[in-house]
């Protein structure tokens, strides 16, 4: 069974490209562009890792992470923020994210960070 990664980003280009990269690397990808549906999709799909943008219309990624982390079923699921904002790193670490990847990202770095958190 493939490792399941959920990507949540309101930028369709980022969602599509990141999804293709992860699928090519052998991951099963769940792509969500609507932050208002992200928590529900996460709970239904139970991914092995969440990769989420911080600044989205509706609900911000830090609020989604903080909410999911209150559920004991999800406390061990790595949640990683993917953002273009320099100030996002501190916010990401403060909400319970395990790591931060800056956009635009290097593909090898992205895969390395994910691999580190999935196989540690």
From TrEMBL:
Domain of life the protein comes from: Bacteria
PTM-bearing positions, type 4-aspartylphosphate: 53
Residue ranges constituting the Response regulatory domain according to the UniProt record: 4-118
Keyword annotations: Phosphoprotein
InterPro entries with a match to the protein in the record: Bact_response_regulator, CheY-like_superfamily, Sig_transdc_resp-reg_receiver
UniProt protein name: Response regulator
Organism: Pedobacter lithocola
Species lineage: Bacteria, Pseudomonadati, Bacteroidota, Sphingobacteriia, Sphingobacteriales
